[in-house]
Design goal:
Elements (H helix, E strand, L loop, with lengths): L1 H12 L2 E6 L7 H12 L4 E7 L4 H8 L3 E4 L12 H25 L3 E4 L6 H9 L3 E5 L7 H14 L2 E4 L2 H7 L8 E3 L13 H7 L7 E6 L8 H13 L5 E6 L7 H12 L7 E4 L7 H10 L9
Parallel strand pairs: 1-2, 1-4, 2-3, 4-5, 5-6, 6-7, 8-9, 9-10
Helix pairs in contact: 4-5
Length: 305
């Protein structure tokens, strides 16, 4: 019993060194999911987070005890299948391996965790370093056959374990045989109960007592469903819902501003633009303020699938 206790104590001291490769430095859904992971990890896990840019997430991660490095992580863009895009991806991949390997030489990572499908640097490094790679798939690009085929092959070849944020995502990214290393884990964030002045929040949006308010919060892109929501809301109003109101909270990522411009044009041409508000998300450094906003904006699920 004494020997077993000593062995257990020694194992508890072993530190698992994880390299987390992430695609942004803001405070949207995947950013907050990563932040919760860092905050709730046991003391035996040491985390280094690689980001492509600086942003509000950096300080939050550092306050939670993570080591943060900023550099090339080889973000995968939709244009990668063109000749020019492919050449850029190759150059970015080489630069990413070089950047991440500098951190690996000092930290000796035991595991690499890519917190988005749109990342290649971590997957390549894990293969080169011969350490397990966990790929967290949060996107569903089923509308593109070429991208779907490409990502299915990459994920299958470069992952030890695949985490999917929904059964729909798993069904899209997994081979037809559905191997056992593909798992569904829903997104979740740690929230504390906070009283919200509902009336004040509605007044800020110029929403009257008799109005029904629909809210969607999330990154503006091609798969969150903002366009489909505006189209459905337009039909709702045309069918006789004069007191319906819609607030879309969020912004487009750098380099994808055209999605936001297209959404603005769609709203303008909808015939009910006076009943729709497009609001940029401005994450607050104050946790209580952030929690209040998140409680209030949780009305619709931002996904097409």
């Amino acid at each position: 019993m004494i020997e077993r206790h000593c062995l257990t104590t020694e194992l508890a001291k072993i530190t698992l060194r994880i390299l987390v490769v992430h695609s942004s430095a803001e405070l949207y859904g995947s950013d907050r999911s990563l932040l919760d992971f860092v905050r709730l990890r046991p003391d035996s896990i040491d985390v280094t987070v690689a980001l492509p840019e600086s942003g509000p997430l950096v300080q939050e991660l550092q306050d939670a005890g993570a080591r943060v490095i900023v550099g090339q992580v080889c973000k995968i863009e939709s244009g990668m299948l063109s000749l020019r895009g492919f050449l850029y991806t190759v150059v970015a991949a080489c630069s990413s391996v070089k950047f991440l390997s500098v951190a690996h030489r000092s930290q000796k990572f035991n595991l690499v965790y890519s917190n988005s499908l749109a990342l290649l640097g971590g997957a390549l490094c894990a293969r080169l370093w011969r350490v397990p790679h966990v790929w967290h798939v949060r996107e569903n690009l089923g509308n593109s056959k070429r991208l779907s085929a490409t990502f299915r092959v990459l994920v299958k070849l470069l992952s030890r374990t695949v985490i999917c944020n929904s059964a729909s995502t798993r069904d899209w990214i997994a081979p037809s045989s559905r191997p056992q290393n593909y798992h569904v884990i829903w997104n979740g964030t740690s929230l504390t109960a906070t009283e919200v002045d509902r009336q004040l929040e509605r007044q800020r949006l110029e929403v009257k007592d008799e109005d029904t308010l629909f809210v969607l919060a999330g990154r503006i892109n091609s798969w969150k469903g903002q366009r489909q929501l505006v189209e459905a809301f337009t039909q709702l109003v045309k069918n006789g819902a004069p007191h319906a109101r819609l607030a879309i909270v969020g912004s487009a990522a750098a380099g994808q501003e055209h999605y936001e411009e297209e959404l603005k044009t769609l709203i303008t041409n909808s015939g009910c633009s006076s009943q729709v508000k497009l609001l940029p998300d401005r994450p607050s450094a104050d946790e209580e303020s952030t929690t209040r906003r998140r409680n209030f904006w949780g009305a619709l699920c931002p996904t097409r699938t």
